[in-house]
Amino acid sequence: MPNPEDEDHCWKCNEQCDSNILEQKLASVPSELTGVDGFAKSTAAEELSFAERISKNLTFSGTFVSGNEKKTVIGFDERMLLHEETGKSHPERPNRLRAIMEGLQASGLLSERCFTIPSREATEAELEVVHTANHISAVQATERRGLSYFTSDTYANEHSALAARLAAGICADLASAIMTGTACNGFAVVRPPGHHAEQDQVMGFCLHNNVCVAARAAQASGAKKVLVVDWDVHHGNGTQKIFEQDPTILYISLHRHEAGAFYPGTGWAHHVGSGPGEGFSVNIPWSCGGIGDEDYLSAFQHIVMPIARQFEPDITIVSAGFDAASGDPLGGCDVTPEGYAQMTSLLSFLAAGRILVVLEGGYNLRSISASAAAVMKVLRGSNPGPLPDNLQPTPAGVGAMLDVFTIQRRYWSNLHDATFLKLETLLDTWSKAGEGKGIKRRYIDNPVWWKWDRKRFCADVP
Q1: Looking at residue 52, what is its pLDDT?
Q2: What is the C-alpha separation between 17 and 366, in angstroms, rounded?
Q3: Is the CB of residue 235 less than 8 Å from the CB of residue 209?
């Protein structure tokens, strides 16, 4: 998908025309980064770098926070901005991090109850717990090249391997900080994203699987059971495949699917894990675009939370793609910042509030900035209020939930028949009124073409 940037806006979603996200120029970069993503060199010798501007309001505590005070750890390193499709344009670009961090700072969300810890690169040993040696070597080899491509739309430049190691290392340290009580919760604002990366496969803009590295780090720090909730609009094929046979990791994904026609084509409702991990993969696949808050929150209310409560995790890790947000050029869905806040709030009731949010996708700068700020407010203790009493999911949403109910209730007794009957009655009512047309339940194997990795192309097909 061509996505040329004219400094401050994306031609497709027009996201920056009336926005002040980047006009504050807090994203000024030091001289060695001049030219990255179209930003000019600073003219003042004393000019602070982007990271210094962001971090000056953050303090390192390194101590356990007692009482009712919530302390949120933030993970960020400006060297991740060096990962770029230099000289071209790509939706997974450095301005994504700039927009999020500047939005958090402008909203006053990086002060008081937040702190940061020194970032570091993931070690080879940490990566080998998730990826094969060949995978790690392939990513590492890009440091000796200029711009190169693993697949038609997954690029790397000479800085990408460093950025990927930093992203994984930050996620590992934040998970450990939360498990050891140094922080109550955390937000890893990292790139490149990770949930498509498999044990031995780079794909879908992703190099190393950051969430998987974080989950293993959490377990090394004492977590026996880890819940991974993936609300990115694309299914996290890498995360599910890596944890496919692991009953200590519960993976729940809500994603646009369209019977395998939406990238990456995986994540059918009947894909539940295998071997000892059977039943520990829960896929909620939407059959169309346009899915919004009421569908997501209904799925959380009736499926995600009942299963998660029965699982009783020690920590929750969120693969937080914001490409299901309204206005995203790749996702085509309609989740609002308030919807993301509600989902975060519900998850915060699990695992004594131990929750790590890890950035995945999201390509409209305005949407990801607002959505990240809404999530951050909840992490800092803000209450978005109760769920609406009468959520009204769409027929497509109800159809997807019924499919999941039928499959997953053999594994999870918390999925109650009364809820199933309520949804089925609702769908039957719509069907009789002609509103449920086009809802089909069919189970077929994945199409071969999903491995071609045309994420941008597949997401752009009407």
Answers
A1: 60
A2: 10
A3: no
Name every residue whose Cβ is closer than 8 Å to that of residue 128 and which is 6 or more positions away in sequence.
Answer: 136
Per the residue annotation, which of 9, 196, 208, 235 is the catalytic one?
196
Structure tokens at 177: 């900080």
Cβ count near 24 (within 10 Å)? 12
Query: pLDDT tier at 69 (50, 70, 90 boundaries)?
Result: low
Q: Quick one: tokens of 90?
A: 């790509």
Determine the average pLDDT of the residues in 122-136.
98
Q: Which helix (H) or strand (E) holds 357?
A: strand 355-359
Identify which has the larger pLDDT, 445 or 388. Answer: 388
Known catalytic residue: 196? yes
pLDDT at 48 over 80: no
Look at strands 154-156 and 148-151 and give their pairing. antiparallel
User: Buried b / exposed e across 228-263, counting CB within 10 Å, b at 16+?
Assistant: bbbbbbbbbbbbbbbbbebebbbbbbbbbbeebebb
Pairing type for strands 226-230 and 249-256 reads: parallel
Whole-number Å distance between alpha carbons of 112 and 61 = 11
- The overall pTM is greater than 0.70: yes
Give the three-state DSSP class for 284. Answer: strand
Rounded distance, CA 75 to CA 191, Å?
Answer: 11
Cβ-contact 57, 111 below 8 angstroms:
yes
How far apart, in whole angstroms, are the C-alpha atoms of residue 294 and residue 254?
13
Of 220, 234, 225, nearest to 317 by C-alpha is 225
Residue with structure tokens 């050891």?
A: 180
Rounded Cα distance between 201 and 194, Å, is: 11
Q: How confident is the model over 202-216, as pLDDT tens digits?
A: 999 999 999 999 999
Burial of 134 (0-12, 13-18, 19+ CB in 10 A): exposed
Structure tokens at 42: 């600073």
Contact status, residue 379 vs residue 344, Cβ threshold 8 Å: yes
Give CA angle at 413 (407, 415), nearest 5°. 60
What is the spatial distance between Cα 110 and Cα 415, in angstroms, rounded to a whole number? 39
Q: What is the pLDDT of residue 419?
A: 79
Q: Using the predicted structure, report yes or no on whether residue 121 has a pLDDT greater than 60.
A: yes
The string of DSSP codes covering 392-416 is: ---HHHHHHHHHHHHHHTTT-TTS-
Rounded distance, CA 105 to CA 206, Å?
Answer: 27
With tokens 């790590």, the residue in question is 356
